[in-house]
Write a structure and sequence with these properties.
The chain is an alpha+beta fold. The chain is built from 5 helices and 3 strands; from the N terminus they run αββαααβα. A 3-stranded mixed sheet has the order 1-2-3. The radius of gyration is 13 Å and the shape is globular. Pfam families: BolA. Belongs to the BolA/IbaG family. This is BolA family transcriptional regulator. It comes from Haemophilus quentini.
Length: 85
Amino acid sequence: MELQEIERILKDVLNVEEVYAQGENAHFGVIVVSDEIAALSRVKQQQTIYAPLMTYFTTGEIHALTIKTYTTEKWKRDRALNQLN
């Protein structure tokens, strides 16, 4: 599965500001920037992000998915701090 496809699917289905995917060989990670999703419990975040990708889990194109969520403000802060390091 292509990283850009994961990003496109999540952007098309979810209300997100930014999405970044990384990984290979059916093991992927996503960073999702969304105030709405970040406000949910961890379980609800996972359910929300997994839902549009479930077909790919079923086919084995995605075997594992690591999820990190950020509010817009926290993402801006973390990016600014990382640029200083």
